[in-house]
Write a structure and sequence with these properties.
This protein is an alpha/beta fold and 439 residues long. Helix content is 27%, strand content 24%. The protein contains 13 helices and 20 strands. It has helices spanning 10-24, 76-79, 91-103, 139-148, 152-155, 166-171, 176-180, 208-212, 214-224, 231-234, 366-375, 387-409, 421-429; strands spanning 2-6, 30-33, 40-45, 49-54, 81-82, 84-87, 111-112, 126-130, 156-159, 185-193, 253-255, 258-262, 269-273, 285-292, 315-321, 327-334, 337-342, 347-352, 355-360, 412-414. Strands 10, 11, 12, 13, 14, 15, 16, 17, 18, 19 and 20 form an 11-stranded mixed sheet that branches. A 7-stranded mixed sheet has the order 2-3-4-1-6-8-9, sandwiched between helices. It has a two-stranded parallel sheet with strand order 5-7. Strand 11 (253-255) and strand 12 form a beta hairpin. The longest helix is centred in the last third of the chain and has 23 residues, at 387-409. The chain is globular, with a radius of gyration of 22 Å.
Length: 439
């Protein structure tokens, strides 16, 4: 199996490479050939997996207004037949790299493994693009590309590894009975705080929320088994944020079956990590409150029943940030109890009238599950998403980011390893406080 990879940085080295090695074997990588090919680094993995890196020379990049063709960088002999394309570059480069792949198929530089070198182009190699598809301002270009290249609906996928977290997968299956014991849901909190400080990356150039917020939607759909029929279709497909002073009118933000409006905006917050790299702009941590609206419907404990209860009115608190403390948990609070899903620890805590119950499950690395889905073919893939879903998720993130702008302008700061006082208070209210919280 042959992979072409755009982006050989941290995501590749710390996520995809170990996952591929775990499936193929522990042997070290071997460099096959890099002679006379400055833009291509070919490496062999055990188990018949070959990886070719598409590394651009910045001086040779094409301007956005010019036609983009991969054969400007590679000859047909350099890349040959390709099974999979992984686009792991910063979000600002995803669209251009996808255009490079499409420009080289068929006709040169890249062709499907199902094609003969004689010239039959065969199918487009499968393409997998890391989250988020983009950061800001690219919606029209992505939608235009999907209209012009219908093959992308069958051969290109959006990858969000948060929906592959093992506790979340368990909760969306056998864990339905646990959730049914909570009674009607009243509040959900999605907490994704990382202790690891910022590193220099263009992915964070416009703040952490724009880079990280897409995980919220992927995980909520998976956890609650929300009907994935796009709510955007029913409301014109234009996610909007409820702007301040709209005389009571609330614009529902929709994405892939989720529908909500901003709530308690006076309690929203944004903070800056002290000492972060200069390229990591805007906020480093954020706190938002939302309220579910029509179009957000959970599945019943017995399956995807059309009579599943509506989640309209459920409060959703969102906390994200870097350089804080490790808190990766979904807190679900109902009329008869609460449930905490620690999705990076393989642990679920269920509190009901019967008392406290703890369940543990293997916390398999989510990227191992991602790579399994990428390697296999056919309809059995569990959680790969469409590019259309990726667009909807990011537009919802962008809509919410507008409500953060005023907060960012007056953002306080925090030292790595600490948590702002307002965020710490929310964690305590949810029963998620632990040693190390400042404020």
């Amino acid at each position: 199996m042959r992979f072409v990879v755009f982006g050989g940085g941290r995501v590749w080295e710390q996520r995809y490479l170990p996952a591929l090695q775990s499936l193929s074997g522990p042997e070290a990588l071997e460099v096959e050939s890099a002679e006379n090919v400055p833009s291509v680094l070919a490496k062999g993995l055990p188990g018949g997996v070959k990886v070719v890196f598409a590394c651009e020379d910045p001086d040779r990049r094409l301007g956005a207004s010019r036609p983009v063709r991969l054969d400007r960088y590679f000859s047909r002999g350099e890349l040959g037949a390709t099974d999979k394309v992984l686009i792991l570059s910063p979000p600002q480069d995803h669209l251009r790299h996808l255009e490079l792949v499409l420009g080289a198929w068929p006709g040169g530089g890249l062709y499907s493994s199902s094609a003969a070198p004689s010239g039959d182009s065969g199918q487009l190699p499968e393409i997998f693009i890391e989250k988020p598809l983009y950061l800001l301002g690219e919606r029209e270009r992505w939608e235009c590309l999907l209209r012009e290249r219908p093959e992308l609906s069958r051969r290109a996928y959006y990858v969000d590894h948060y929906s592959y977290k093992q506790p979340i997968r368990v909760m969306s299956g056998q864990g339905r009975e646990w959730l049914s014991r909570l009674g009607r849901l009243r509040r959900i909190a999605w907490v994704s705080l990382e202790a690891r400080p910022f590193w220099e990356s263009r992915a964070f150039a416009q703040g952490y929320w724009l880079e990280h917020g897409c995980h919220l939607f992927a995980m909520m759909r998976k956890l609650l088994k929300v009907d994935d029929k796009s709510a955007g279709t029913a409301s014109g497909g234009k996610p909007q944020a409820a702007g301040a002073g709209r005389q009571g009118q609330e614009a529902t933000i929709v994405s892939g079956g989720l529908g909500f409006v901003p709530a308690r905006e006076h309690e929203w917050g944004a903070w800056i990590q002290e000492g972060r790299p200069p390229g990591c702009g805007a906020e480093s941590a954020a706190l938002l409150h939302l309220r579910a609206r029509a179009g957000w419907r959970a599945a019943s404990s017995t399956g995807d029943s059309p009579t599943s209860p509506s989640l309209e009115g459920v409060e959703l608190t969102v906390m994200v940030g870097k350089g804080l403390v490790d808190r990766k948990v979904v807190h679900l609070e109902g009329e008869q109890g609460s449930c905490q899903v620690w999705f990076n620890e393989g642990r679920v805590l269920l509190r009901t009238e019967a008392g406290l119950e703890e369940y543990r499950m293997p916390a398999e690395d989510a990227y191992v599950a991602v790579v399994k889905d990428i390697v296999r073919s056919g309809p059995d893939r569990g959680d790969l998403l469409s590019l259309k879903t990726g667009i909807e998720d990011q537009e919802a993130v962008i809509a919410l980011s507008k409500g953060l702008r005023e907060k960012v302008a007056h953002a306080g700061s925090y030292r790595p390893g600490e948590v702002p006082a307002e965020m710490a208070a929310e964690l305590r209210q949810l029963g998620l406080e632990q040693l190390g919280l400042a404020g």
